Amino acid sequence: MPTSITESAIRAHLHTAVFGKTLIVEPQLPSTNDTAKELAAADAPEGTVVVAAHQTAGRGRREHTFFSPTGGVYLSLILRPASPIEPGLLTSCAAVAAARAIESLCGLTVGIKWVNDLFINGRKVGGILAEGAINPHTGNLDSVVLGFGINVAAVTFPPALENIATTLQNEGASPDPSTLVAAILTEWERAYATGRSGDFLEEYRRRSVVLGREIHVLRGDTSIPATAVEIDDAGRLIVRTEAGRFTLHAGEVSVRL
Question: d(Cα 31, Cα 33) in Å, to the nearest integer?
Fold first, then answer.
């Protein structure tokens, strides 16, 4: 059974210069992203990290509830980009970093469902949520809070999720949660350092579980059959439908396999 998350155990395995320098660890929070956004609004520096083992009000994209059972790894970090960056690239970069961290500790193959879901053996094991804040005086991006949610401990999922979600322990791996947090932060800092060049995108494409597959593009209550064709250099998904080819942006649609 995975042990609890502690600041000292994270720091014992952390190999970063910026991310985790300021580290806040709680057994439970409503949402690590919400806490990190409050800290960002109070001028917390880039690299500040908030960690919890349980969330009572976790969120996914498009304000969907993110099931956050006890025994998971939930962390959010504050970014202050010095120049504009495509939001989809941040999410894609984070997904690659988390996949690398999980594989390094667990030996499990991790796929990525565009744009932000981590998959093992056809089931979702985690997700990424990026939320930006605009400076009201300049109109520029002031900060980004990047949240990671990974299911770790064994869980019996509710019926609606049992065939589509999994945990690392359900898949036969039992990583120490503190070590996993440290690995995610270490891989993230490494990927983020070169993220603007898009170097990670080839790996993101290789890990894709949607490219070449028939999918459904969800916009509001509308579901459109499509084929996932390509992920471009901005992290956007290009699909082919009966009406032609379209480029999808992360914030406007969801994709269902």
Answer: 5
CA angle, residues 195, 123, 148, in degrees to nearest 5: 40
Distance CA 167, CA 156 (A): 10
Number of domains in the chain: 2
Residue 84 forms part of a structural domain? yes
Q: Which among 37, 77, 88 is positioned nearest to 198, based on CA atoms?
A: 88
For the entire predicted model, the pTM comes to: 0.91
Give the model confidence (pLDDT) of 157-216 as tens digits.
889 888 999 999 999 999 999 999 999 999 999 999 876 667 899 999 999 999 999 999
C-alpha 117/C-alpha 133 separation (Å) is 22
Domain that holds residue 234: 214-256
Please check whether residues 149 and 230 belong to one and the same domain.
Answer: no
CB 23 within 8 A of CB 181: no
CATH number at residue 236: 2.30.30.100
